[in-house]
């Protein structure tokens, strides 16, 4: 078992390997994390782990009205996550490699990171200015018939895109060709589909690529059938999520 200790960044979203994560960092605990990461030489990876929040708040109550007018302000690395923060997070997350960390004039940060490797959360340490975690890296096993499943998922995903574009009364963008490597396909589709956090988390922690692709194939068929019955959908980008504010 390979383990690593990294800063921990909990979010109300799921990060997948290979996907880009933009962050706008304003809470002091995460600003401290970014200042620490900036101490890493530029030729070395500036890594932190992202986990989805199961029970808690991405932004801790810091003052009356922020974000809840009735909330009591909280301080510290584990603010908003209870007395045992490890219980507030899903157990499988993803390492992020920060390609860009830019400090603004007001001390907040703009960060652009990319998911790299899945990890399992073993323990959380809240004794410092920001959360850190002991993590076990998870291999990505292909599973049975991953190649054939990937082809089926790509066909269904293209149909899903067309239905979604039609429901929004807009043209389907014709960007770069979709990949054909099964693991990459499984993560791209998981990130691009309009799914809730628990469903995306289930896809992230699938035991192997083939299992994830089988799940996605069922989801794509179901979602495409639902979209077919809808007259319109809110205008939002298919493959780009909003910037996370922390």
TrEMBL record:
Transmembrane segments: none annotated. Pfam families: LON_substr_bdg (PF02190). Residues 6-224 form the Lon N-terminal domain. It comes from the Bacteria. InterPro entries: Lon_prtase_N, Lon_prtase_N_sf, PUA-like_sf. PROSITE patterns: LON_N (PS51787). This is LON peptidase substrate-binding domain-containing protein. It comes from Streptomyces griseicoloratus.
